[in-house]
Every structure is written in C-alpha cells, then in structure tokens.
Amino acid sequence: IFSTLPETPLDEPFAVNGAYKQDCNAQKVNLGIGVYRTSEGAAWPLRVVEETEKQIYETGDVNRHEYLAIQGDQEFLTLASGLVFGFGEDKDSEPSMTEQQRQRVVSIQTVSGTGANRLGAELLARNVRPGCVWIPDPTWANHYTIWDLAGVPKKGYPYYDATYKTFDFEGTFRTLSTSAKANDVVILHACAHNPTGADPTQEQWKMLAQLCKEKGIIPFFDLAYQGFASGDAKKDAWAIRYFFQELHEVEFCVAQSFSKNFGLYGQRVGALHVALSSTATNDTASKLHANLCHLVRGEYSMAPRGGAEIVKTVLGNEHLRNKWQEDLTTMSQRIQLMRNALFNELIKLGTPGDWKHVINQASCFIGMFTYIGLTENQVHAMTERHHIYLLKSGRISISGLNEKNVRYVAMAIDDVIRT
Ligand code: PMP
C-alpha cells in the first residue's frame, strides 16, 4: 500500500548535519544547523537551565510526570505571553490596564516553535480560510511544509535584496500592497530573520503594520530567537509589541519557541499566542481557546511537560531570570564576536566583495544566521574542497565559527570566490 508514495525531500539543515557527522576530515566545520555552539564547538546547556533542572529534581515533586491540561501549564503560558507582549514589565502601569491587555491574548502551549506555527496554520486554515499565505522569500524552509500540510495556497514576497544585501522593504511593501487581499496571512519573522539575518527597521515595521491594518492582512509572527538575537528579549519583541499596542483592531498570531533562547532544542517548549482586537468579547476568546484545545487534543493531547517546567521556573523567579539574562548575553556576544572575526579575516585576505553585511549594520543584521553571498557552486566547493558544511543558499550559522576555525573558513571563502 505504500509503494506509490511520492518521493519527499530531506530537510536540508538536518541532511547537511548528517553529512557533516559522516565526514572524517579533522578540519571539518559545521555551519549548517542552527544550534548554539561554544568556542570549543560543543553544545552548551545554559547554566541557568542546569541549575533549575537540579532544583526541580531535588524538590521530589511526585506530580512532576503527571499529565498537563490540554492547553498546557497555565503558569508557564502567563509567563511566556508576558515575555512576548511585556505584560507586567512596566511597573508604573495600572494593573487593570495590564489585565485588560492580557485578556486580549489567547495562549496555548505547543510542541515548540514548529508546533506553534503548525497549530496556528491549522486554526486559520479551518476557521478563517485565508485566500493565501504570503511567505518571505527566502524563509525557514519548514514554513512551506507547514502551510502545505494546512492546505493553504502559498505565495512569496521578495524579502531579500541580493544586490544590496538588505531586507527588500520596497519589494515586500509593493507586493503586499498590490496583491494581498483581506484575510490573507503574512508570515513575519519577528527578529533575526532565518536565513538572511536581515530585519526591517522600526520605521519599516510601522509601515508594514499600517499596511496590514488597511488591507485586513493577518500577521503571523514567527518568534524563534527572542533574547537570543540581540541579548535583549524586549528589543527582539519590539515589532510584536508595536503591533499589539498600536493596532488595537488587528488580530494576529505569534509562534513562540524556547529552543534557542533556553537551549532546550530537544525538549520542545513553545506557545501559540493569538492577539484579539480590543473589541473582541470574552465569548470570542473562550471559543478560540476551546477550538485550539480541540485541535491539540486530536493531534497529541498536550505539549510535553519537562522543558516548560524549566522555563516557567526561570521566568517566574527574579534571581534565575537574571541568570538567564547572563546566559543570553554570553550567547549573543559570542555570535557577535564571531561575525566581527569573520569580517576581519575576509578584509585581511582582501577577499573580493563587500562583507559589511556579515557584521551588525545599524542593528538590522542580527542573530545566528547570515547569507554569506556564495553561489550554489561555490557552496559545493566549500564542502568538497574544504569540508565546510553550509546550506546551498549560502546561509551560514555563525555559531559554528570559533577562534580556531574562523581563519580557515575565511580562507576557504576566499578560495572558492577566486577560483
Ligand atoms: N521558526 C524559525 C524561523 C526557526 O528558525 C526555527 C528553528 N530553526 C523555528 C521556527 C522552530 O524551531 P523549534 O521547533 O525548534 O522551536
């Protein structure tokens, strides 16, 4: 019965990672997969996570392996939505105002960021039936799979200007303003765009927000790098908070992941938040919540418990939260350092090309990834000749660089460009 199954492509980052693991060359470098690595090239459980895990275990709570509710852990969700929208951060604001704002957001725990994207896509596909979803070109490849599975037609908007190596604001704005229709969905990377590393400026976000409002486009924020990108969770959530606070009538989704910012990749911790308009009734909010629970129950009953317990404990405790901040700073600073090191090596080598896009230009190039600007043939040569693994688009994960290999990588880039 399965003999006629269609061929399906392997997911590229995981395929590249597999090829890297099989390579026996001592100089091999993995710039493929988007995970944090130390300057020794090793995985790094966050210090705060290790401390918290121990603490949770030592409490000996006999309930720690029990089922969660279908919507997940409520305390985790309150803290997770607070991190996204900033609820309760402003100590001077009226508690009743904060409560009113909280009521506008319906949250549900998910199987990490992927699960949140998937659940949101399913919710919209079934209930709103969007004419299409506008996906940035390029994007995290899984967006295509997720929206394919949801059965929503996909269209691309030109996200990246390869000539100037920047976010293509004009192309994005023109495409959406001329072609998007009411109730179409637009995928927006909230910060640290994967794969290019190029983000809109605040002024550009404001114009995109206005456009969504005028045209009735439904924004769908993918938030996979909050705090990991700039080291400042508030700064990385700026666009979402702007949409929420300034556009009271625009309803939108946020797919939140704790994979990168807590280093909890395999634990699958995340949440889907749906921001309702300020005029939405409590009845709408509870129906939405019930619909989300229904989808989750039929798929996997509830998201996993262990990782969410860690995130909840950290976010709910000032001392641990400060330690988390220290860990975020460690990770984001190392990545920034490596961006600068690669840039400096390429400049020293006189490698043909303009490499400014590798470093943090006007804070619009941030996060783990950069489009280095190599052709597919050059990428192939990087792997064949130099055992350096990256995506064929030329996306590199900066976190695979360290003091020992950055010169080697720069020399390889220089070689494939010149020959
Ligand atoms: N969105 C984007 C843009 C990502 O880069 C990632 C991680 N690669 C995710 C979502 C989801 O990751 P996870 O499912 O591990 O949370």
TrEMBL record:
Keyword presence, Transferase: yes
Example GO biological process: aspartate biosynthetic process
GO MF, one example: pyridoxal phosphate binding
InterPro entries: Aminotransferase_I/II_large, Asp_trans, NHTrfase_class1_PyrdxlP-BS, PyrdxlP-dep_Trfase, PyrdxlP-dep_Trfase_major, PyrdxlP-dep_Trfase_small
UniProt superkingdom: Eukaryota
PROSITE patterns: AA_TRANSFER_CLASS_1
CDD domains the UniProt entry points to: AAT_like
Keyword Transferase: yes
TM stretches of this protein: none
Domain Aminotransferase class I/classII large residue range list: 27-413
Cellular compartments per GO CC: cytosol
Cofactor(s), names only, from the UniProt record: pyridoxal 5'-phosphate
Reactions the enzyme catalyzes: L-aspartate + 2-oxoglutarate = oxaloacetate + L-glutamate
EC number(s) given by UniProt: 2.6.1.1
First-tier enzyme category under EC: transferase
Other comments on record: In eukaryotes there are cytoplasmic, mitochondrial and chloroplastic isozymes.
Similarity comment: Belongs to the class-I pyridoxal-phosphate-dependent aminotransferase family.
Description of how the protein assembles with itself and partners: Homodimer.
Protein name, as recorded: Aspartate aminotransferase
Species: Penicillium cinerascens
